[in-house]
Amino acid sequence: QQVFFERRLSDMQRSHDTLHSFVYQSPRNLQASDPSLNPYGASAPKTDMMSNTYVDSIIDCFPHRFIHKHNGIPTFKTIHAVHELLNDNASSVTSPLGGGNHGHLGLVISEQHYLTLTGKHFVKPENPGSNATIPPGILSKEHIDKIVTSHNEAKRVWLDYNATEKALQKQLLNAFEDEYFEERRDKNSGFLGISTKDLLHHLYYTYANLTTEQLEENNDNMMMPF
Length: 226
What we know:
By secondary structure, this protein is mostly helical. 55% of the residues lie in helices and 0% in strands.
């Protein structure tokens, strides 16, 4: 019986991967043709979620696909303008995280701002691993189905989170000249481990030169509903 269930699990996971590679190869086209066909919206999963192609497909679904590149030293005005566009884009990618009503907005605003806005914490999902873990013992088909379905959903949420983060970071890095990010770039690993929020904080702290009035205005704007 244990061999039977292991084969059953393997067959189910292969079927799941086949479905993803067939249905979700182009989330933008699928969503454009009939949004009701795409249960994940802009965050439809794909077998290779971390590929540049998939990250670009998320950007294609953003309301602001192209963000104007600002030449010269960043200012509060230009940083804030880009930040607002990133807020819109992050919010557009559906997610059950943080209450489920603000997409991935928590990727680009502070934890406190998100909590004040939504009353919920936006918590980074943990990597559930490549395969579902089936406990030992005799399990029914329905039980195995639930375990695999739950794992696949957790994996989708985790992959969506990371792919959306990469998409937002790519847009931010393209919005200003490279030299203004050099302080945060590692010579070996680049921006690995550095979040979009980290880079936004770096820009505000280093180049915005905010007055007290601008700081208060910025805080008020960050509290406004999206």
